[in-house]
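Dear support,

I submitted the protein below through the web form. The confirmation email said the job was done, but the results page showed an empty box. After a refresh the structure appeared. I'm attaching both so you can tell me whether what I see now is the final result or a partial one.
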Amino acid sequence: MRASFFIGSIAFAAAAVMACAAKGDNDGTSLPEHDSGTSVAPVTEGGTTEADAGGEASVVEPPRCSGAGWCITDLPDSDLMMKDLWPLAGRAFAIAESPTLGVKVLEWVDSDAKWTYIDDGSQNEDGRGRWAGRIWAPTENEVYFGVSPNYVFRGTRTAPGLPWSWAHDSIGTSSGVDPDDGNPTYWKRPGSARTPALGIWGTSSTDVYAWFKGTIYQRSSVDGGAPEWVPVYVAADTDVPAEQMYFFAAAGKSADDVWFAGARTRLLSGCALLVRRTSTGWERIADGIAGSINQACKPRADHLLVGGAEGWLTDIEVLSPEAIVALKGARDVVKISVDSDSYSVAPASIPTTLSANGLNSLSSTEGDLWLGGTGLIVRGAGVWDGGAFEISSSSLNGAPLTWPIYRVRGTSNSNLWAIGVRYALHKTTP
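What the results page shows now:
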């Protein structure tokens, strides 16, 4: 059954305090136009509230968490643009951009309740570090991240708390002229938002992939030598010189079944691109014929055409061995189901009230969908079975958040993160 939708908006006050527990999600029954969250008594110049009925003033601590349990965590610097995050049990790794520090890599540890830098600064040397790619960690002692122009970094340590050792490799070919080569502008999000086509993901420490622009690489040992990044799939069959092909995300549950999502794109036009690798090899599942400016993607022979909002597949998650879910066109969630050798698509459009400014990320935990956009976090439950999308309130005191959330991701509904410009929110309540 097609999902029904809850429509509303969200607000959040930017305060830098540590994470804490809070109430459950708003049930979606009576959200006002702007989610006002917890009210706060007016504060005088001396830092106290107006006198109460007894004539005494008291200090009021600002709220730490929203009604849905999204809690502020301290960042080591105030100008960090948190771009991507990979969560593990009890900790998380994140990558950020800063106008003063360049690209930075951070680790969060639950027991310490704080973020710390773990990089050695080499990601910003020799022309590197203009922008951040994706980050991924197979274990608490190994982490990968991408950084411009086309570098993949790998960090290792022998145990938590000990120093990190860093190494890096370049993959593919950067133009050397365009500093944003591999970091294309996505017209579906305001402000000429960019989506990095540089990332790393794997099913384990011994099964690791990276991608840059339209090429997928696998970390492999050739002839018994040291591991290196070997090209395993190339999408270069453009129809016209002005066309580009990119990969943006990957997902999978085993080494014998992995998926890569991306786009075939031209100026203000694009088609969803989806590639799958199984034990029998590589297969391009979805593709299309990109049109001219603002024209719809047309079917391509022998390929699935992913419907829904026009545009790219920028995020992907595996729901089950028979289905994946992806974010398409910065506003639609699409479920792609597998039945033997055939595939089908079921879009679930998010109301423009929630997606008018474009959505940046998609995550799936415990059967729920989580999405982040400009000033909001959206939760979807059973959206293909009569369920709905609704706001998961991140409002603390009624001040609207106008900055984007770049990544919502978690290991469970009790370990979720929402990160963006100058903040990282942690949700530890279901």
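Response: this is the final, complete result; the empty box was a page-load delay. Residues 1-54 have pLDDT under 50 and may be disordered.
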